[in-house]
């Protein structure tokens, strides 16, 4: 009997939903569960149970303003340096990986100091990977303007 009563109470609690009102007053904006006596509006509270979409409660997107046709667009120079989010960067460094856009310091942190470097015609660092004492792979890291432009893995 007690379990049936508890089950009914749980079902009833999941079905009921409180109403929320936004009230504008001399002291500012307040929120309450009762209708306002003056200016106020009812707020629709969306169901927050597990599931749904991450963008469910976001405001609608605003259209971006069109650029003025009379103004000349200045070209942005291409650069190999790119923003690497800190979480991804930490993951790359822990795994000992080098990706396009890393700086020299980040490459040193991932691979260590370079055993071979060639400054001309393009700055290149060459790392060797040994497997059971034998040369297994060569890794070429090419830099442009202080950032990694490409990483090439080659068998010797």
From TrEMBL:
Positions of the Outer membrane protein assembly factor BamE domain: 97-131
Residues covered by the DUF4124 domain: 9-39
Stretches for region Disordered: 47-76
Cleaved signal peptide residues: 1-18
Keywords for this protein: Signal
Signal found in the keyword field: yes
GO cellular component terms given for this protein: outer membrane
Annotated InterPro entries: BamE_dom (IPR007450), DUF4124 (IPR025392)
Name of the protein: SmpA / OmlA family protein
Lineage, top ranks: Bacteria, Pseudomonadati, Pseudomonadota, Gammaproteobacteria, Pseudomonadales
